[in-house]
């Protein structure tokens, strides 16, 4: 688990809400406080989609940030900064598999609960915390370390300034 402080909040928000930088991540949860508090569960409602639409999703039964981003943008845009927000992103299964392969196949995808980015904005400060959920007990922290390093590289590649706290 790594904590990244994001000093350039406005630049980050532009990438998050108007760019496609995070579009390929799954949205697990969103909470946004403006004039009221909006909560999005990230729960995928399979019944909403036709069979053809489900097939086009290639078996991914989760909500992508790209599907919610325009809605979030509409809730945030304007002259006032949100009071707070929390986003929980999850790395999609194929990207998780790629990271598992990088550490030498020490773990199977089925043993992984998820790799997460927790983004929080509160009192004018923005932070990102990485998280790893593993379904089985293991003393091996190689996946956690690889995910933390991957998240840092991703932020750097996106041109997002950050300060690594822990």
Task: Name the descriptors.
5 helices; 7 strands; 7-stranded antiparallel β-sheet
- Largest beta sheet: strand ordering: 3-2-4-5-6-1-7
* Strand segment count: 7
Helix fraction, binned, reads: 25-40%
* Rg, Å, rounded: 17 Å
What is the tally of helical segments? 5
Strand content: 25-35%
Q: How far apart are the first and last residues' alpha carbons, in Å?
A: 8 Å
Global geometry? globular
* Low-pLDDT residue spans: none
Mean pLDDT across the residues is 91
What's the helix-strand series?
EHEEHHEHEEHE
Judged by helices, strands and strand pairing, the structural class is alpha+beta
Number of separate domains: 1
How is the biggest beta sheet arranged?
7 strands, antiparallel
């Amino acid at each position: 688990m790594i904590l990244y402080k994001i000093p350039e909040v406005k630049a980050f928000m532009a990438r998050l809400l108007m760019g496609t930088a995070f579009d390929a991540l799954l949205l697990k949860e969103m909470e946004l406080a403006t004039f009221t508090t909006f909560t999005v569960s990230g729960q995928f409602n399979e019944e909403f989609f036709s069979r053809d639409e489900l097939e086009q999703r290639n078996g991914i039964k989760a909500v992508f940030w790209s599907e919610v981003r325009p809605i979030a943008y509409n809730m945030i845009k304007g002259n006032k900064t949100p009071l707070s927000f929390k986003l929980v992103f999850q790395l999609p299964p194929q990207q998780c598999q790629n990271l598992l392969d990088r550490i030498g196949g020490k773990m199977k995808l089925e043993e992984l609960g998820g790799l997460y980015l927790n983004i929080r904005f509160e009192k004018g400060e923005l932070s990102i915390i990485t998280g790893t959920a593993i379904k089985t007990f293991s003393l091996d922290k190689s996946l956690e370390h690889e995910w933390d390093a991957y998240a840092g590289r991703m932020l750097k590649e996106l041109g997002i300034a950050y300060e690594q706290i822990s």
